[in-house]
Amino acid sequence: MVDINENFLSLGKSYLFQRIAEKKTAFLQKHPEADLLDLGIGDTTLAPPKVAIEALIRAGNQMLDSPIGYGPSTGYLFLKEAICNEYYKPLVSSSLSKTTSYAPSSDEVFISDGAKSDTALLENLFAKESKICVCDPVYPVYVDSNALAGRLDPGYENAIYAQCTEENGFTPKPPSSAKEPVADIIYLCSPHNPTGIAFSYEALKKWVDYALEHKSVIIFDAAYSAFVTDPSIPKSIYEVENAEKVAIECGSFSKGASFTGLRCAWCVIPQSVIRSGKSLNALWNQYKSITSNGVSYPIQKAAEALFTPEGKCAIEENAKSYMASAQKLHSGLKNLNWKVFEKPSAPYVWCKSPVPLSSWELFDLLLEKAHIIATPGSGFGKSGEGYIRFSAFAKPSAIDKALVRLSQLYQEA
Amino acid sequence: MVDINENFLSLGKSYLFQRIAEKKTAFLQKHPEADLLDLGIGDTTLAPPKVAIEALIRAGNQMLDSPIGYGPSTGYLFLKEAICNEYYKPLVSSSLSKTTSYAPSSDEVFISDGAKSDTALLENLFAKESKICVCDPVYPVYVDSNALAGRLDPGYENAIYAQCTEENGFTPKPPSSAKEPVADIIYLCSPHNPTGIAFSYEALKKWVDYALEHKSVIIFDAAYSAFVTDPSIPKSIYEVENAEKVAIECGSFSKGASFTGLRCAWCVIPQSVIRSGKSLNALWNQYKSITSNGVSYPIQKAAEALFTPEGKCAIEENAKSYMASAQKLHSGLKNLNWKVFEKPSAPYVWCKSPVPLSSWELFDLLLEKAHIIATPGSGFGKSGEGYIRFSAFAKPSAIDKALVRLSQLYQEA
């Protein structure tokens, strides 16, 4: 008789976005005519760059003329080299710590179908006993994947939480070495989901130094790096000196290049991240060769085209457009006496309503009264209670409408 | 300090096809002019059906006009319904056990990027203590993924092996209930990789009955179902009565539709597979929602097009072509006094050379003397020792050339 993996029983009740989807469906059944504004999930609303779709189409036609079979399980060299040469090298040369920044080589880059898969599956590299540390609030995938691996109890109480609070500007410091257990696997996301706020170079350096001291590994989720324009904010953790000894970086084409429906991402595991005498890079190579036959060839060709001048320009324009919406939402909410914080570095606005409410109360109020979907802050962790996240990936017209409705909501409240 | 997942230390030295690739590279460095014939890995050499590429291109253009964001993590309904209506329903209506065959519904179908990923990751559903049973020889992914999960010791000795031998026609019976421990998770592949030989309805029924009796779960890898033409051989395990209570089926577009480079597959988990009081279908839904954002939209549209009359016809033509090569290779080897067995049901020929050699000796001989790549039987398990697998997915011209060279090899030997 086979039993189930009992770690499933430790999982939270339902995945946050599933619960939102259920509430949305129920609302639409009751109000089929409602003009619902979805500022919930961070899904892109602009098209992928034309040059990427053209490359996809070319690759498709090429497959008809001359069949392409299995690709490498860790991705094609052409895409790995584009990421190294066109993304990391320019970043390093313009980086704040010019002499120490690390530019990965192509054998350190792994192509995947999403930063979600990578951040969820990378835990497979580590011992089951490892202590995990996450920010609170946090993208639920980091904790749920570790719960499935047996590292968390049913309430997830035994993770180390680095609280993102108004007091620390939502960029927490590493755990105190004296008072807290050692964090073995540290998940950081910058710009941060859900707050939209990024780690400064100095704030991130504290985490790298902590990981160096404690031989921890940082899984750095850089899915929102395309939106960073402030030169004092690192886009890559490898801009911080010695990060290549402790950090795995997950990058993505989803948000910057509107690839959410196309599915392509990468992670970097430097050869110099050695634990238990083994190279994590080599272990991940083994893991990928057992569990994957790589990413679709036309999709990798589409991703490669993002590194052409036309592709880069399109990403920049898309990012500007989303960030303009974020800025408008941020100012608009401020004017309506919502509590907003520092300027976001990603298209999310993290805020509190003028009337104190729990996150799900606020979610329900927004849905019922303003027909707006947002994401309850408490769904991202205890410290998110009372907050809500608006996604500025929505269409500009939806942002405008939402602000009008929110101004009326406030008058009613 | 973080340690690695020590299960990596249990893994076999290197993944079979990686080792072959290394030997191939070394050979080509020594003999850059050699006309190497690759009858090794089962990679398709025909193009995907034109109708699929046309759908891919249409989907790409559609994404430019009206952005498609995240898809469902378990796949789009349009593809799930095509699989249910166009694949399973006709199968059931023409099945051997007409009254009992099971046609899955769309909520039982999960779209993925490959049967490799599915067969490797499905073990996450089960308790770590589960005993696994595999055929020997076997596709290495089943055992390697379980070794990574901590279910196998370094020599993989503690799996239950169902030996595929000449005596049992390479279709073994389930373990003896009296003499062997209970097999909790059973991996079956039919037509079988590497032997190319399929389970008959009766042979498969014995396994389903065993699983029913012992509350085991069968993971049935049907990646080669497109090549089955003999009506006495089931394409799907759900043609066997009550299989929907014990079996997960992994299907794939890779081999039949030459999708190896496009990446799309599915698995079926019937709602009626309940273990420890939980529906495995619901658990896999949770697993997918945590670890994946689904398969690329244009790829799912390409897969959907395979169910049009044009797509079905193309798959049939491709399958005929590969099977004609397999038949030619099978007869040719027989004429050259190689030991071949019953007619294969997939484009693989499993055989022994006229001169007794170990599998790797035979591999090296074929590479050095005939410039042919084949796959050593022992790489698939102990019972594969002495055998070699030729893949008939190679181009027909390569099959012809290989037979000429093999006839000369034999004369020399």
Task: Walk me through what this model shows.
The structure is a homodimer of 413-residue chains. By secondary structure, chain A is an alpha/beta fold. Chain A folds into two domains: 9-47 and 310-412, Aspartate Aminotransferase, domain 1, CATH 3.90.1150; 52-308, Aspartate Aminotransferase, domain 2 (3-Layer(aba) Sandwich), CATH 3.40.640.10. Helices cover 37% and strands 13% of the residues of chain A. The first copy, chain A, contains eleven helices and 15 strands. Chain A has helices at residues 16-30, 50-65, 77-93, 115-121, 140-148, 201-214, 280-291, 297-304, 309-335, 359-370, 396-412, and strands at residues 37-38, 109-112, 132-136, 160-163, 185-189, 217-221, 247-252, 265-268, 274-275, 278-279, 339-340, 348-352, 372-373, 375-376, 388-391. In chain A, the strands form four sheets. In chain A, strands 2-8-7-6-5-3-4 form a seven-stranded mixed β-sheet, with helices on both faces. In chain A, strands 11-12-15-14 form a four-stranded antiparallel β-sheet. A two-stranded parallel ribbon of chain A has the order 1-13. In chain A, β5, α6 (201-214) and β6 form a beta-alpha-beta unit. Chain A starts with 15 loop residues before the first helix and ends with a helix. At the A-B interface, α2, α4, α5, α7 and α8 of A face α2, α4, α5, α7 and α8 of B.
